[in-house]
Amino acid sequence: MEDKIRKLSALAMGLLMLLTTAAVLTFFDVRAWSDVEPERAQEQTEAEPEQEQEQDMDMLSGMKLLDSDVSTEEQEILEHQMQMELPAGVGQEQIRVENDVLHRRVTINIPRIAQDYYFDHPLRGSSTHIDDLQLGSEYGGGVIEITLDKVYEVEAKVEDSWLYLDFIPPRELYEKVIVVDAGHGGSEPGAVKQDIYEKDINLGIVLELKKILDGRPEWKVYYTRTEDVHVSLNDRVQLANLSDANLFISVHNNSTRTGEMSDFSGTEVMYDEEKAGEELGSERFSTILLEETVASCGSRNLGLLAGHSIYIIRTSQAPVALLEAGFMTSHTELNLLNSSDYQQKVAQGIYQGIVRAVEEGF
User: Fold this and answer.
1) Same structural domain for residues 194 and 341?
2) What is the rounded distance in angstroms from the CA atom of residue 240 to the CA atom of residue 235?
3) Does some domain include residue 51?
4) Higher pLDDT, 63 or 340
5) Which of 104, 164, 197, 273 has CB atoms 3.0–4.6 Å from 306's, for a disulfide?
6) pLDDT at residue 25 in the model
7) 3-class secondary structure, 111
8) What is the mean pLDDT of residues 11-24?
């Protein structure tokens, strides 16, 4: 009996010591955490407003800062649509201007400008063509982002410590304005056959066409994409509409309805049948493009196909033609379309179609 009591007492003492130790460890753990966490919380509280402030200061709206209160007489003296005084020592070679025509966004990088510079040296001139204006600074320089209402060519020049900007409709500078669209791209592959993506064939044809069109400096050619990126349907057609394009060509490739491989092959062009009969419209341009592409490639002529149900066709204000160069569901035609030699032939046909359309007065 006494042995049993001693064993129970020893067990109770052991449990007591264990609970005491756990309590002490918990106490020190809580103390240690409470000593660190308030500091960490304070650091976060102090850092977050700074981060938010930095984000707010990255870009600020410049529409209110834009000095558009310029008289007609003064505007005539200014000669240019917009102007801005530059920091001392900044010249033409240090100004970088990028014109993203697809999104109608002009980005201007100017060295030696902090954000407060804009308050004392605002942009001056006409805001007629501006939908939005953002001002910011990074890496010791200023960034100006201008979103325009249409597609313009941008002329920027520096004279006597002033930056002058002009936004010029492309038709005022070039004989013809042409928009070329490589169908699909990025996350939208189009038809896929034997691990060959339609988006890649479309782009290959357009890049071959670009090599040819680069030799026609009197024409301004805008491309919806020249690499494997996603472009929305609206951006594609608005590039044509907002540049007042004379011609709009979209390059695609075909497949059978079932998607199964077959011997069916050939070239067809989609047009806007709702505008059929226009003298220099979608139907006539599509006919020309079809004839010249078939002649260049030696492919089968499948004729025109009504395409008003296609978004970029029915919303295009320019004469539009959507080329289906060939059928990826044809073993023979797929191999041809995937070769650079055949892509060059398709591109040559498109080019001859453009030349012929221009000669007819488009």
Assistant:
1) yes
2) 9
3) no
4) 340
5) 273
6) 33
7) strand
8) 43
